Amino acid sequence: MKINKINRLALINGYILDGSENMEPAADKVILIDGDTIKAITDRDEWESSDTKQSYEVYDLNGRYVMPGLINMHVHLAGNGKPQKKQRDNAALVGKIMSTALTRRIAYNMVKGFAKLELLSGVTTIRTVGGLADFDTRCRTDIENGRCIGPRIIAANEGISVPGGHMAGSVAIAATTVDEALAQVDRAAKQKVDIIKLMITGGVLDAKAKGVPGELKMQPDMINAVCGRAHKLGYKVAAHVESTEGVRAALANGVDSIEHGAKPDEEIISLFKEKNAFLTTTISPALPYALFDRSISHASEVEQFNGNIVFEGIVECSKAAIANGIPVALGNDVGCPYITQYNFWRELYYFSRYAGVSNAFALHTATQVNAGLAGIGDITGTVAPGMKAELIVTQDNPLDNLCALRNVDCVMAGGNIIDKPEFKRNANVDRELDKMI
Prior knowledge:
Residues 65-417 form the Amidohydrolase-related domain. 36% of the residues lie in helices and 20% in strands. With 437 residues, it is α/β, with parallel strands linked by helices.
């Protein structure tokens, strides 16, 4: 693996997938890059006769495919996705991790390592939605200042939950009152976060009985108050929601994006449109609980039953959103069991397989659409002059098979070019997930 700074680089002899909805491989084009920006895209014949040709270093794609870097809209940077045979006490674990200066330093270095892993796998932007202390904003700043390499980070730091709520005490603060929740919004603002994250319902593992995943935990008055304060400060609000009741409460009280989703009804579709909200589809985390044999997932009968409800709800919500013109983003909820920091490409595959979209639409969603919904569509998400040179290169065409994204040959981001990125994979995770392809 080689990491080099980009000065002036000309990408030749490749096929461009520009990230647009109806993208087709474009041949006989040359992409001219200055530092971290695409300066121009020119015809090959024009390039060959150009007076400036000698001032560019040539990077020969040799018939490979170049496209925008992927954008993962739902990441927990503190998680590695390693499967567990039994549930852990996440709050106790985080308490131990954060208890001393040494363990905090080790944990922060782990977070930086996971951010780098996202980049090496072809993800050039991540949106974090619940993390340890202020680690996500610190990592964002370290990357921006060149102290480490990683993707662009749109950071929430710790989410806001309630006592007994989803991820309370681990990657979310448990607010017992509205005032405590508002205080956490103000604290996050001082940390210079980019978004606010709420944990409104429980999740698959929070439910103790069949048929009740996504139980409403955060009351509407707290949701409304947090959204009001966040919007006043200029922040969008993303919310963990895994039930129809929760989606309704979230949208009615000002949430800007539903993370995960649930089976929608007509009222919910209307609320999405009325509130100009979007859905972040995350098929990956529910899939192992729903579709793996329990001897593999180590899920209880209750967890598998509820996993099916959540899995089907997320897929139905995604399909309904697409059918009704509601914007859909893609994220894979990194950190959940079997969801690693290098496997975002699988979310595109699941989106195509289970939501029934084309490979091109899945890639378009993970690039141009995600960029727009993240508020950065003017700088990344497409291959075009003036955009950041945040690009990936694959040997095969992902429009034919999204598995082409599994191994990227090259990543460009932050003015760096990373040739033949290498990283350690979890063989057990890959083996079991590959059975779903």
